[in-house]
Amino acid sequence: MSETEIKVPNIGDFKDVEVIELLVTEGQLIKKNDALITIESDKSSVEIPSNLEGKIKNLKIKIGDKVSEGDLILTLESTSEVKKEEIKEKPKIEKEFKKIEVIKPEIQEKTLSKKNISDIASASPKARKFARELGVNINQVSGSQKDGRVVEDDIKKFVSFNSKNDVVAKESKPDKIKNEFEHSDFGEIEIKDIPRVKKLSSKYLTNSWTTIPHVTNHDEADITEMESFRSSLKDMYTGEKIKITPLAFIIKALVASLKKFPSFNSSIDEIETGKMTLKKYYHIGIAVDTPNGLMVPKIRNANNKKISLISKELKEVSELCRDLKIDKKELFGGSMTITSLGGIGGSFFTPIINYPEVAILGVGRSEKKQIFMNGKFQTRTMLPISLSYDHRIIDGAEAARFNNDLKESLGKNFAYKLAV
């Protein structure tokens, strides 16, 4: 057996291109056209194939090295005689460089441990680039194509299976911070179980906060006329006062704004492919405070219901949640969520979006303020609202317009009488 050198072939006008991946290890048997390394310029990446078959004796290159045409990649113990034409052959890959667009990630130098050939995944530069962007170790992904070759769909399935919709699946986890002392070292303590509902909701909250770029728009809505109208409602037969929670009015106003701004009534399916689901229904989630934790049942088809019916359903679903009798399905399939602290106190806050929705409305406690209107100060009832939205779908200008429309619906221009 003879020993042969394999060098970087003709890569056009590119020089000093960075090596970002080693796709083989010393002692590995390779065939002709097997990928050896991946190199990446400022605008593209490509795999360098072998023009021979044999057993790798020495790797002469490492991740982070800069290479040009003619630089030595490895030495190979050839298992067969090689024609001169084959040795002289230099695969032309300049076109591949220009064809594959990438965004260069931060490459951390790492040592590739010795593995069998089956441990190193076969994949295109495009698939490898996609895996790097998601932080996925491509060698852990099972390929669905011929000879186990990995494609983008395989990576998506890997991420979905391992992290349950978390877009980043890290190969290594950050070290957990451990307390140097026990809590009991400083005094008396009590150990209690975390309520089951809070345990279940924690993973959804963590997923939402870590995967959705949250932005919150704070504003105030003038609900003076709404509150005046609400307090004047009476039964037409008995004359008794009809009690309707302000939240029912807010739900109806929110539906009116969702009709004008359909992107708020959507969910992202695949951000990479630019797909989103626009919902034609209006199921409003309501955050219910229970002894067991926060639950978010839905008021279904709120667009077809009068305010009095919505108010009744709010009481019913709240009781079901507190008694832990709510159907699990009623906690899913929402358009947008409202979380209200009005009955407790506080003004503005930053509510976390209820994944897979793309927006959530936080409502604080209303208060009377002196507002300058029509050339003079007037006492008005103002409602603090905090709109958190997914910045991948909704931009700041659209969020501001949405809030303005919501304020108008909650104000004197909203036809409350038709909605009761």
Labels describing this entry:
alpha+beta, 420 residues, 2 domains, elongated, single chain, 10 helices, OB fold (Dihydrolipoamide Acetyltransferase, E2P), 4-stranded antiparallel sheet, 7-stranded mixed sheet, Chloramphenicol Acetyltransferase, 25% helix
Average pLDDT for all residues: 82
Name of the CATH superfamily of the largest domain: Chloramphenicol acetyltransferase-like domain
Determine and state the CATH class of the largest domain.
Alpha Beta
Task: Compute the number of strand runs.
Answer: 19
Tell me the number of helical segments per DSSP (H or I, 4 or more residues long).
10
- End-to-end Cα distance: 90 Å
Question: Could you characterize what this model shows?
Answer:
This protein is α+β, with helices and mostly antiparallel strands and 420 residues long. It has two domains: 118 residues, OB fold (Dihydrolipoamide Acetyltransferase, E2P), CATH 2.40.50; 220 residues, Chloramphenicol Acetyltransferase (2-Layer Sandwich). It is 25% helix and 24% strand. The protein is built from ten helices and 19 strands. The strands form five sheets. Strands 9, 12, 15, 16, 17, 18 and 19 form a seven-stranded mixed beta sheet that branches. A four-stranded antiparallel beta sheet has the order 1-8-6-3, with no helix packed on it. Strand 10 and strand 11 form a beta hairpin. Helix 7 crosses helix 8 and helix 7 packs across helix 9. The termini are far apart. About 11% of the residues have low confidence.
